[in-house]
Amino acid sequence: MSGQRQPSPSKRRRTNIDDPDQRTSSLPSEIPLSERTKLRSDASTASRQGSPTRDVFNQLRLAKPAIICEPQATGSIPNTVLSLRKRLADGFGQGIIPRGLESRIRESDPAGAVVIPEYPYFDSGHMSDAALGVMWNELEEIRLQARHCDIYGKDENAWCLDVGPLSCNRQSQQIDADLLPMVRNNLTRINKKADYALAFSCRDPEVSSLYERVRLGGHGYSISQSTDTFNKRTVLFSGVEVKPDDGGKKEALAQLAIWLKPLDLADWLLPTIGYTVVGHDWYVYIAYRIGNEVHIIGPISSVLADTRSTYGILKLRDLDSRVKQYALDVYWPWVRDEILQPLSMHTFSED
Questions:
Q1: Kind and range of the H or E element at 142?
Q2: Helix axes 79-89 and 310-326, enclosed angle (nearest 10)
Q3: Cα distance between residue 263 and residue 287, in whole Å
Q4: For residue 305, what are the β-bridge partners?
Q5: Is the predicted pLDDT of residue 77 greater than 60, yes or no?
Q6: Distance CA 18, CA 143 (A)
Q7: What own/partner pairs with CB < 8 Å and gap ≥ 24 does 332-341 have?
Q8: pLDDT digit string (tens) for 322-344?
């Protein structure tokens, strides 16, 4: 699974203007409060505007198909979803830190090292000093780049580009308008992009051969929700939505939900996975379909990861490895046998 990474689309920088005159002092007030003094909440004023993000979630619930975002699954849960959660969580974060890096971690981050439990370490006697050195340099580059983005308040594009080693197999994608959820009240489509997508690469001989046989472009077939000339002809598995450290977690989820919906077409029975990235923190969501509803649950608390520390980055690599393994072992065989092979046979029957 791969794909040459492209720069994230240009996005407008968010600025927070903090007016000192509008701040509330933390010092004891010297102004006496009389019985006539009234404390008003801005929430009750007519000028206060509703939350655009909350409005998006309301629209998604009324869209066709309905998209339900929940912290926990409710009602009937497909066995495929339970199996995926178990695959992601079992042994997560165990045996991921080479013992040979322990001294470097303690030197680099003494405070963080003392709270690392014993179970993440494994005997790295089989690893050469050179291999350990390469691994350490990679981890430090990610940690320092993420720290730099955090300290200097860099925007979304910087988090995408500077913490790029974790997203090297993903690229920004626009969603096909025909696959976007339809809002009932005004029949407009919610148009969103995903910052990155995980694809089954045509560099693999088996995948390339099957894509060629289907010949998506020539007969108008599209397997993914992307509008990109090349990537709409490839199977996209996961979406990643990135926000800066002070970005909105709910806003990221709303955009991810819109991206994951087209992956869950009527016959798309297996659950898919999506990430939201808010600064250092990576959150995982599972999307699946029940009847005419697409459910997106998460974040999955048992597999939280971040880029604040070496330990957190290694947990993120563990998570990424588990997601890719599910895609290769479970998702790809199903897509190949149930979706692509029939399309391939149908194509040849028309020739």
A1: helix 129-151
A2: 150
A3: 9
A4: 282
A5: yes
A6: 29
A7: 332/200, 332/235, 334/269, 334/270, 335/200, 335/223, 335/235, 336/210, 338/267, 339/223, 339/235, 339/267, 340/210, 340/211, 340/214, 340/223, 340/235, 341/210
A8: 998 998 899 888 888 877 777 77
3-state helix, strand, coil in the chain (%, to 5): 45, 15, 40
Do 277 and 308 contact (CB within 8 A), yes or no?
Answer: no
| Alpha-carbon radius of gyration of the chain | 23
At 237, list the tokens.
């598995």
Residue 77 has, within 13 A of its CA and on its CB side, a CA count of: 13
Quick check: pTM over 0.90?
Answer: no
Its sign, for the CA torsion 291, 65, 171, 340, is positive
CB-CB contact of 283 with 276 (8 Å): yes
Other CB atoms closer than 10 Å to residue 185's CB: what's the count?
Answer: 9
CB 5 within 8 A of CB 168: yes
Closest CA to 307 of 276, 279, 283: 279
Decide: 262 and 347 in contact? Cβ < 8 Å: no
